[in-house]
What does this fold into?
Amino acid sequence: MEKNVFLVGFMGSGKTRVGQALARKLGRDFIDTDQLVEQRAGKSIFQIFTQQGEEEFRRLEHLCIKDVSQGKNAVISLGGGVPCHPENRKIVQQGISVYISAPPEIIFERVRRNDKRPLLAGLSDTGKLEKIKSLLAQREKFYRQADIVVQTETEGSPQEVAENIIEKLRGNLLQTMRIVNVELKARSYPIYIGTGVLSELGKLCRRHSLGRRAAVVTNPTVAELYLKPVEQSLADNGYNVLPVLIPDGEQYKTLETADSIFESLIRAKLDRDSAIIALGGGVVGDIAGFVAATFLRGVRYLQVPTTLLAQVDSSVGGKVAVNHRLGKNLIGAFYQPQFVLIDTGVLKTLPRRELRAGMAEVIKHALIRDEDLFEHLENNIEQLLELTVPPELLEQLVRRNCQIKAEVVSKDERERGLRAILNYGHTVGHAIEAITDYRRYRHGEAVLLGMIVAAHIGFQMKLLAEEEMNRQNRLLKKLGFPPSPPDIPIRVIMEKIESDKKVRGGHLRFVLLRQIGEATVSEQVGQNQIEEGVKYLRRLLEQK
It folds into this structure.
């Protein structure tokens, strides 16, 4: 049995017509949940709203979605507000979701003469357009969580849009994998997520029309576990593979290591049609991406992350770099991969310390962008750390983190504004990593320490309530606090911070929390506040 295809999007976006065309082409049933609600209630949606209120409509809507999701192999058109509710999102995640996107002006032209749209009833044309823009802005982040995004205003008739969807659904891969799209126009790419999907790498390379020669950059630890199946998958699909092994550890993310990779590629006579595959954690991904961005002025590459931290963070967004003795990631570029393949099954072989370090980045994403995710982590962190949850729940966790990162990167690829919030905990964390020569802490552990400092700074500045700060720290403590930083003079910490990439025009841009789920960037953080934050960190770690 195949998964249901759920169509999400705003009223007037074209879900019904596209859904009917898609169902005909796929030979599936078409179901419109708005019609189901009206059948269940025995009255129109407009009457439900006016006589019983929106709350009753949402209750009926959820019951209908829950019922229809029990079946399989259907194309299901959902009401515009469905994805805004967590219980509905859980149901939609069981199938494949498609966001039918249209700009507010197009939507307005389609619905302006329909007086039976309850959320627009009684409004003037100007009022309708403003209401559409406002509601769309509120719902967009939920719509963008869909597996596939298509735009009805640029892709032709409903039949043509349906053909586009089918092309993106083609093959069995999308039936078993969750997909997150990083939308960057010509540089857009998918993130494929599943359990036991490493063997599909070669097929995906063919799907993305990569050249027939590929260098797999990895380290000895990962190579022992996963290089052979990766080589086999590539060979089975007609690829010639060059394995390139580099030392394991952040201290090796240097120009010297990059030079050794360049030499291997040059000696093997790889050309511009060749591809580079990063198989490993964040260090491998960063340095392989840096090499791809600069070898022959740029060759295609892809990410196959094998640590939790790399899966939820560093493999997504196109930041590639090496470290310099004066600071972390100071030499690099923004260079997007062709795709990312995430096999959550490989996390079973991850050392516990690496898993916990990666979970710190998961918590970071929840803190800056998603309070619902934070609450989920509060309730389930122990099972997640022990990997005792069902595979699909682990896939959902990774997928949601990728969605958060993709959403931010899609709006601000080169970190000129919004993307800076992803650096929550990184300012002090990077400084601690550099001062301790990248040997004492995993990256996620250093970020954890930095988040504790950043939350206390926000508390000092009266941005963050004390209980919110304590709530963050209680969850971080469940990961197991790393060792306390050595007694580093604040002067040394400040020197490292001031050489960081986050300093712009002489001003330090520090990411702080307003509340759990909402971050901001401040240029008002001074040395005294950082010093007080570091002192607070030491006191907290001493209590563990």
